[in-house]
Design brief:
By secondary structure, this protein is an all-alpha fold. The protein is built from 7 helices and no strands.
Length: about 200
């Protein structure tokens, strides 16, 4: 089973997770990784274990599977499948409970949805100067650029240089856009360096 960490936009973030200590968050992330490993490999463990016991029963005519009838074998297999689903469901539930990052995706999706609403407002006749002013003064591009640079650093620390370089390049474009739109005057044209960077 694959666990999806993004929750619906309207999901409320519990106040208990606000200002959480860094050590607690790291411990919770370690727990999420361990539980994710359980979900990823429990099926393989059950299949290998059952196969080993079955082979032992066939070769040595001994063990817990040696004297099973066909009906009992089917029931045993269905029980193992049911146990696998129960384990996965329990692990997913624990991940939802302890994961300190489960709402991070919601923020990004909600932001994209709100920006899309502004786009729709323009189509319905909103004043473009007001929207341009809000975009310039809100720091949206600057904040997105800072997040992108931090993501690039995180991937670089993990040794994933290709992904880090793509994010660094994206951060550069965002910085250029912020300098032209956010820090410049309305109607300013990009300078030669900015135009070159954006190509």
């Amino acid at each position: 089973m694959t666990h999806v960490l993004v929750h619906p936009v309207e999901t409320a973030r519990p106040k208990s997770l606000e200002n959480r200590p860094v050590r607690v968050a790291r411990a919770r992330r370690a727990g999420v990784k361990a539980l994710s490993a359980v979900i990823r490999y429990d099926g393989i463990v059950i299949i290998v274990g059952t196969g080993t016991l079955g082979l032992h029963a066939i070769v040595n005519n001994d063990g817990p599977l040696a004297n099973l009838t066909a009906f009992e074998a089917v029931v045993t297999w269905l029980t193992l499948i049911g146990a696998l689903y129960v384990i996965d469901a329990a692990a997913n539930g624990l991940i939802d409970w302890i994961n300190p990052d489960r709402w991070d995706g919601d923020t990004a999706y909600a932001l994209a949805e709100e920006v899309g609403h502004i786009h729709d407002d323009l189509d319905s006749g909103a004043d473009p100067e007001e929207i341009q002013h809000s975009l310039r003064t809100s720091g949206l591009l600057e904040t997105t650029g800072a997040l992108t640079r931090r993501l690039a650093l995180a991937f670089a620390e993990r040794g994933e240089e290709d992904q880090a370089q793509r994010l660094y390049a994206s951060a550069l474009h965002l910085r250029t856009a912020d300098e032209v739109l956010g820090h410049g005057q309305a109607g300013d044209e990009p300078g030669a360096v900015a135009r070159e960077d954006l190509q």
